[in-house]
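Friendly challenge for the regulars: who can give me the structure tokens for this chain first? No prize, just bragging rights.
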Amino acid sequence: MIYRPNLQDVSFILFDVLQAEQQLAALPIFSEVDAPLISQVLEEAGKFVGEVVAPLNRDGDEIGCTWSAGVVTTPPGFRAAYQQFWQAGWPALSANAEEGGQGLPSVLECILYEWLNGANHGWTMAPGLLHGAYECIAHHASDALKSQYLEKVATGEWLATMCLTESHAGSDLGLARTSAIVQPDGSYQITGEKIFISGGEHDLTDNIVHLVLARMPDAVPGPKGLSLFLAPKFFPDGNRNAVHCDRIEEKMGLHGSSTCAMRFDGARGWLVGEAGRGLNAMFLMMNAARLHVAMQGISALDTALQKATRYANERKQMRAPGSKQSVDFIIEHAAVRRILNTQRAWRDGGRVLAYQTAIELDIAKHHPDADRRAQAEIWNSLLTPVLKAAWTQQGFEGASACLQVFGGHGYIREWGVEQIVRDVRVAMIYEGTNEIQANDLLLRKVLGDGGAQLTQLIIRLRAEIAGTKDTCGADLALKSLLECANNVVAGHALDPLVAFEIAGDFLRVAALAMMAWSWSRISAFSDVSEIAQTRIAFLRFVMPELTMRVRIVHAAYQPA
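First reply, four minutes later:
Bragging rights claimed.
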């Protein structure tokens, strides 16, 4: 029951549904990237994930990370696998070639991390922040810091952390009290404690680069007074910084990842970006991490589906309704098929959106047409919170549904499906809770401009599917999303608190509308038996939620 990456399924979404080769061909930087190259890279990635990372998953969960006197030891095999991972160049797929990377499209990194998370979520937590740290250092650090740290982070030779949370300051980062005092040599003395720091201490790499939010003595209160600092575990001369791991948390899941309480005891660090604009720099890390977290939800669905489908095809139980057999494989039972097809609909619809988002990231950077770059920025701004919130929720709920296929066997550890449920649950919480994602979408991005960018995106998508034979209800769903947005914009001036109450419902409307758009693309291939069955499950068992959520949004602005 070990997870295996399925290149055929991914290639269908990438090349057939999204026409990724043609989209990337419009970007001069990828002029030499074609379908055979992409397939070759993904084939090798699948081998590494399936043969090296996946077999470590059981020990990662059952043995887990251990802490002793400030030292964290990862589970057996984790360090060797990580050393092999970075030395083979996998962390550097999309980094710039001049900075130690391979300069390949972001969508390859997206798929790689989907597979890594599916194989071993705990292990993958370690390199999961590398891309965001790389972007943060590349865009905001001084030349001196870049020369010392950028290539090491780009290649994954050194891992990085994102030190934000404090015990009294979870989502409200403006309450952070960690201090930074400037020193005569221009460095800063950092003092304070951070909690819930993924990979704050471990033995996977020889150094760890900590990116720390802290407050200078004369800083204004609140989030605008925070600055960002780089504080390495070891200095270039080999001496150790005053950064300590006081404990690791005992968690519900992700036992293979060390979640650390960190103490900066007068640690030496250097300013990254401008003073008082630490959150601006950190958001580069957080936005990159949010797409990776969305992929954790999709990969949890894929892993749970693999296990549940295999089990359903092997397990015989009572006669299925309408069957003439005395006993059937449980895949013949309609209730089981509904579970599997519904989760497959969410997985495949999520893949379309996530892979397209990764492509849009590169379009926003490299497309020669300024208007197309602007369209990509709108897509990324609006779709990132939708993907993070909706697909981490479905990752948890869908994995739980797949556990149901096993019956009592799913609740015990032997089959491994209960671990998926435990591991993926945190994805709804970290990198900004799903409630924060909903507020970000509705309060900041829709109400922030009166719905202008969302309207622009919806017009573009409706135009794309105009004349399509089978839209899977996408045109009506997108129209409903636009009506919800207009209703909230109109009602917000009368009662600004209502938007906070229905933000989650609005995000679900957006997720379902965008999923319908995804299935309008997939349905062009509905002559394939499995796709046809999954399409029916999407229309019957997923889309009806849209009506309920739309009613909730509209009802919130009607007189009581």
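The mean pLDDT is 94. The two ends are 53 Å apart (CA to CA). Your move, everyone else.
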